[in-house]
């Protein structure tokens, strides 16, 4: 079932981004089947981690970010997206604050197998 | 598995949109698990239809579109998204050409239960 919070109207990404300021703390804005769309603000370095069971998508809404892999880095600018394959260790980084839309199954933990203090609560909607 | 075409670098939505001109003919640009990300150009009215087994997401990249339901219309502007619930009859419309990112399971047929001449081939990548 779709979440009823999806049912009333358009989800404006800029308006949703204006409702929070914390970095590395994804906010859910929509759900399609079991897939969630989460806005995240990033600044600095996240933690190295992987997700054993799922791919993960980042679509940059504002600014620039880097997805680091052990053998290369992928730069993402506004209007660019990337699919991080399941099981592949990665880190997200942003020299200046960057805003992105994450698309992934609803139960994915942001720090994957790494855990730690940057682990965010899931299913926090804005 | 992720499609290998995802693996090489960032997917730039504007660059992908520049590779085709046909309306109502979605092009796949990425795959996350069994979910595909498809760019579509729209102008005019599509056909009334529904998808019995899945929700469907539209995220407007350029222009404006309307998602019509039997009891209301939802206007989507650039940077806005909407989740069409499974099983709900709808039609997409655009007075001027509009570009959107569709997110849905990979085997979804664009015309759903309606079929007809606007039915597009699936899994066409750009």
From TrEMBL, chains A, B:
Residues 43-102 form the Cupin type-2 domain. It comes from the Bacteria. Pfam families: Cupin_2 (PF07883). PANTHER family: 16.7 KDA PROTEIN IN WHIE LOCUS (PTHR36114:SF1). This is Cupin domain-containing protein.
């Amino acid at each position: 079932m779709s979440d009823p919070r999806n049912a009333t109207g358009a989800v404006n990404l800029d308006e949703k981004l204006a409702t929070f300021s914390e970095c590395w703390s994804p906010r859910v804005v929509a759900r399609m089947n079991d897939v969630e769309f989460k806005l995240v603000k990033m600044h600095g370095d996240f933690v190295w981690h992987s997700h054993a069971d799922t791919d993960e998508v980042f679509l940059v809404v504002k600014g620039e970010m880097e997805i680091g892999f052990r053998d290369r880095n992928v730069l993402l600018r506004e209007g660019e997206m990337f699919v991080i394959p399941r099981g592949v260790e990665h880190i997200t980084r942003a020299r200046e604050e960057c805003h992105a839309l994450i698309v992934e199954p609803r139960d994915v933990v942001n720090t994957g197998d790494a855990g730690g203090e940057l682990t965010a609560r899931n299913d926090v909607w804005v």
